[in-house]
Design goal:
By secondary structure, this protein is mainly α.
């Protein structure tokens, strides 16, 4: 209500200014108009002032960047207000980190030829899980639900470009991933003494960025294949749970058979986990970053993005059938 009053007051003032600028004044030329020569210039100035966005102008008057910022802020608020999203994004990874380190953290395993404690193995593993849950599972459930309930259809009918709606979801996912990654690394350092050097953290950030974008593309691709919001959760669980155990997230790769390791290496989860694990044993940026794993993640992201662009639909399944 306050915003509406301010907007109406500002609109009234602009109209008064335009009306006063266009009214004739005394004295001047033969026609009695002293500012006849300056009228076009003055009218142009008034029109430009009316078009210029004020401090309280709507996001639509600020261009694509303003729309993107406004939409991203909206999507962030929606995600933070969702109990399911809050639990799966922030609480669930922390609970698993505490459980796995408390139950299995005393053993040892090998990472890139270096013998380490299992707690140093589980930190990047749980970080991998958090990224996949946020970027893939969250988007699959969210997008399929929004589409089937008609929300995407209504959003697409607005003047906001489709690219802005998709980019805002990507930025929201990146923000949530960055928040949970930082939180897990802080807990690992403070509670379990798993320290990671600054160059290795920079490598983690690069890997997390590529991994988040790749799994977001995969999430969009899979969401286009789901015809019911009720089917989203089972499909997410069916595609994620087996990969946790054959990709080196919960179980060290040395404990798996060769066949399971080879099968897991086909999917992107193993490459995200493998690249993040390097930061646990290497202190330099180059050694903590796996170019091969990043290329595989990028290839998955590009392929899934192309498939999503081909199959993605803004309409509910019933309406588009």
């Amino acid at each position: 209500m306050v915003w509406l009053i301010k907007y109406l007051t500002r609109l009234w003032k602009r109209r008064q200014a335009a009306r006063g600028a266009s009214s004739p004044k005394q004295g001047g030329d033969a026609d009695g108009d002293p500012d006849a020569d300056s009228e076009p210039e003055r009218d142009g100035t008034v029109r430009q002032a009316m078009r210029a966005p004020g401090p309280g102008a709507s996001a639509g008057t600020r261009g694509l960047l303003g729309l993107l910022v406004h939409q991203t802020a909206y999507d962030l608020r929606i995600s933070l207000r969702s109990p399911r999203a809050r639990f799966m994004t922030f609480i669930f990874p922390i609970v698993l980190l505490v459980v796995f380190n408390g139950v299995f953290g005393k053993g040892h395993t090998t990472i890139d030829g270096t013998r380490v404690e299992l707690k140093e193995f589980y930190v990047p593993g749980i970080l991998t899980m958090a990224i996949v849950v946020t970027a893939y599972a969250g988007l699959v459930i969210s997008i399929s639900t929004l589409r089937e309930t008609g929300v995407l259809k209504r959003r697409r009918a607005t003047p906001v470009p489709a690219a802005v709606l998709i980019a805002s979801q990507a930025l929201t996912t990146l923000a949530n991933t960055a928040a949970i990654s930082a939180l897990l690394l802080v807990i690992a350092q403070v509670v379990y003494g798993v320290g990671i050097s600054a160059p290795a953290i920079a490598a983690i950030a690069c890997t997390a960025l590529v991994g988040t974008l790749a799994f977001a593309c995969i999430g969009y691709a899979v969401s286009g294949l789901i015809g019911s919001p009720d089917a989203a959760q089972p499909i997410v669980q069916a595609t994620m749970l087996p990969l946790w155990f054959i990709s080196g997230v919960f179980v060290p790769l040395g404990n798996l058979s060769t066949g399971l390791r080879d099968l897991g290496s086909v999917f992107p989860v193993a490459h995200l986990a493998g690249s993040l694990r390097l930061a646990a044993v290497h202190g330099s940026f180059g050694a903590a970053l796996s170019t091969t794993d990043l290329l595989v993640l990028a290839a998955w992201g590009i392929g899934a993005g192309a498939f999503a662009a081909w199959r993605f639909n803004w309409l509910p399944t019933v309406a588009s059938a």
